[in-house]
Write a structure and sequence with these properties.
Oligomer: single chain
Strand content: 25-35%
Shape: globular
Structural class: alpha/beta
Helix content: 25-40%
Number of helices: 9
Radius of gyration: 22 Å
Distance between the termini: 47 Å
Order of helices and strands: HHHEEHEHHEHEEEEEHEEEH
Length: 296
């Protein structure tokens, strides 16, 4: 087998992004160049490595096997390049992925604590949805990911070996509403009152469901604004243009003009915050980050 480093990087990026088109955009190639590299990989491996689906591309078992080795090879090449250039890092890097609202509540205190207790650990962060962060973990472009899950709390991609997952905390889902208007002065709302209200939600796809609408809402929700950015959503709430859902732990980060409402008349929606990594012994730097996240 003869694989170029470029082809292995293409394999890793396709695994992470879930499509040839997204991989091409991330790597700065044309989609035809990505397709040629994928075909060359499959010829070299003598096996089918990619499964094409209507919603993207996934790796076959053979592709996952090659990806596992590609992670090691590419890490060694990067280390060799650093040694040859004399730029080998003295710090201990950790690439951390985190879901959007978790970044607002967990990152600042965790990184502050880490700077005081383990200053040699250099954390770089990336925000993403739980499905995209899991793909990045599998692709080897993240060392650790903070994910969120709903019951039965198994944010897994079903691949083997399973990810190593630790619980950080449980938090209740609430509704963020304007402090003025129909819910002014209240601390709770009945689920039935949420049926006809205007919602502000994140755009959804087939693989990644919409965030911002109360789960189990009867009928089709009236989504009037879509935005990925949490600040945009909460500013729209503060201005009185709708409501959205947030975990209770995000309360201290809410802007003026927004209040948290408990939802009555429906089972509590508990969201679990989890830290996930690839199986195997974690590095001391990853352990330090996990310790800081748990303390935060």
């Amino acid at each position: 087998m003869d694989f170029s480093s470029t082809a292995l990087r293409v394999l890793r990026q396709v695994a992470e992004s879930g499509s040839f088109t997204a991989a091409a955009a991330r790597l700065g190639y044309t989609q035809s160049a990505i397709s040629r590299q994928a075909a060359a990989l499959e010829r070299g491996a003598g096996a089918v490595l990619f499964e094409r689906h209507f919603d993207g591309v996934r790796l076959t078992p053979a592709g996952l096997t090659l990806l596992r080795h590609a992670r090691t090879i590419l890490a060694c090449l990067d280390e060799a390049a650093q040694d040859l250039s004399g730029s080998a890092p003295r710090s201990e890097p950790v690439r951390l992925g985190i879901f959007p609202s978790g970044g607002a509540t967990l990152l600042p205190p965790a990184l502050t604590l880490l700077a005081a207790t383990d200053p040699q650990v250099a954390v770089t962060t990336r925000e993403g949805t739980t499905p995209s962060l899991i793909r990045s973990l599998r692709a080897g472009s993240l060392d650790l990911a903070v994910l969120t899950s709903r019951p039965p709390h198994r944010p897994s991609d079903g691949e083997s070996p399973p990810l190593h997952v630790e619980r950080i905390e449980d938090t209740e889902l609430c509704v963020a509403a304007p402090t003025t208007g129909v819910f002014a002065g209240r601390t709770a709302v009945h689920a039935g009152e949420l049926v006809d209200v205007p919602w502000i939600a994140a755009p959804s796809s087939g693989a990644e469901p919409s965030l911002g609408v109360w789960p189990g809402l009867p009928g089709r929700p009236r989504v009037v604004h879509t935005a990925r950015d949490w600040l945009t959503k909460l500013r729209l709430v503060a201005a009185g243009f709708g409501v959205t859902t947030v975990p209770r732990g995000m309360g201290p980060a809410l802007p003026p003009g927004v209040s948290l409402l408990r939802v009555d008349g429906a089972p509590p929606e508990i969201r679990r915050v989890l830290a996930a990594r690839l199986p195997g012994p974690p590095s001391p730097a990853v352990v330090a980050v996990l310790r800081a996240l748990a303390a935060a």
